[in-house]
Design goal:
It is built from 14 helices and 13 strands. By secondary structure, the protein is an alpha/beta fold. The radius of gyration is 21 Å and the shape is globular.
Length: 387
């Protein structure tokens, strides 16, 4: 089977990780797989360096006319750019019907390109949707100018979501978070396919004494909430390590906030880390703390693979796999009191942290990238019409 896996760009985060691991493991299973990326941009950080060296990548923008090779972001939008408008018209000129039996498309905006590819080249696509446009618009832009246009934009967003889902060969989402929402857009069953991880064969018999938080830090990730937590902890000796790349203006203002609150000795910012260094932090952390609700939350699963319990908002996708009070704690998003109480408990009781981490580790062992790829092949084979 000839499978194309399509990304809009390579950014540090869960979406790129899904695509890389799928290419790697599907190829190991004997499938003909090619990773296609719409935009060629420098990858921020080093998290995926090892994977990138092992995976063949075709950057489609290299075959675009020169004037269309560099995207421009639309005002007020975080992710939507000219590439999402141009690519649906240019990519069908590059990819032919015989190139692929199916294209797996990661992220909602990228699906517009696959939709046009299906219309023009008759190549079916599988839509991998993490957050529908109709969900992102009111949540991500609640404080921007776009909120005033929501009565007009929300029906349009829902219509675009429906266009993608109704015409996809199949629609996949990473957790149960958006499953019902997506199911209302068409008459097709929405498949839930959780990501994988690399669980250790054994974990440490003790947990370290620091708190860890790991993500790509931008304003939407609410890093200032973590400073509020540190200020309110009973254990003033505990240290917070914040791993991951940063938006530079935010890093400057956040660092200033640390100094103003006199937390210099209690908050450490590592910047972007390699996979190896990040895994070492998971291995020794007392607990992983994530401040915002996520459609999944890869850090929670990766932490569990290293025996580290998590505190992550209730209802986040990763909580499909774990149990509150057994594998970590899942408070309401933004509940400062609950966050601090749970962290204080784990800081004061290392045995509790170890017990929860062990329980999470045992469950994480059920979710490998190899199993993810095998389940993906089953979805494709069931969806494709017989030859």
């Amino acid at each position: 089977m000839k499978i194309g896996i399509l990304l809009d760009q390579i950014l540090v985060g869960g979406v790129a990780r899904y695509a890389f691991e799928e290419v790697k493991h599907l190829r190991e299973m004997g499938q003909q797989v090619e990773l296609m990326v719409l935009m060629k941009k420098k990858v921020q950080g080093y998290q995926y360096d090892d994977l990138l060296r092992k995976i063949p990548i075709k950057f489609l923008s290299e075959r675009f006319p020169f004037i269309f090779r560099h995207p421009l972001k639309f005002p007020f939008f975080r992710f939507f750019s000219t590439f999402h408008i141009i690519s649906p018209y240019l990519v069908p000129k590059i990819i032919l019907r015989e190139d692929f039996d199916v294209v797996i498309t990661h992220a909602t905006y990228t699906c517009f390109t696959s939709y046009r590819l299906w219309k023009k080249r008759n190549i079916p696509y599988i839509a991998y949707i993490y957050d529908p446009i109709s969900y992102v618009l009111p949540r991500a832009y609640a404080s921007s100018f776009l909120r005033f246009l929501s009565p007009f934009l929300l029906p349009l967003a829902r219509g675009l979501d429906a266009l993608i889902v109704k015409n996809a060969l199949a629609t996949i989402t990473c957790s149960t978070v958006h499953q019902k929402r997506l199911a209302t857009l068409g008459n097709k069953k929405i498949k839930v396919l959780h990501p994988g991880c690399y669980s250790l064969t054994e974990i440490p018999k003790t947990r370290g004494d620091y708190i860890l938080s790991s993500t790509k830090w931008n304003a939407g990730k609410r890093p200032e909430f973590l400073l509020n937590i540190v200020e309110n902890l009973r254990a003033k000796r505990v240290k917070l390590i914040m791993a991951g790349s940063w938006d530079q203006p935010l890093l400057h203002s956040f660092s200033t906030g640390i100094k103003e609150r006199k937390l210099e000795g209690r908050v450490e910012i590592t910047g972007a880390l390699s996979e190896e260094k990040l895994n070492k932090l998971y291995l020794k952390a007392r607990v992983l703390v994530h401040p915002i609700f996520e459609a999944f939350g890869m850090a929670g699963l990766e932490a569990a693979a290293h025996g580290c319990p998590s505190i992550i908002p209730r209802g986040s996708g990763v909580t499909d796999l774990f149990v509150h009070g057994e594998d970590g704690f899942f408070p309401q998003e933004g509940d400062l009191r609950a966050y601090t109480e749970y962290i204080d408990k784990l800081v004061a009781d290392e045995r509790m942290a170890r017990r929860m981490g062990y329980s999470a580790w045992r469950k994480a062992q059920k979710y490998s990238w190899k199993k993810h790829a095998a389940n993906l092949i089953q979805i494709i084979q069931k969806a494709l019409p017989p030859i």
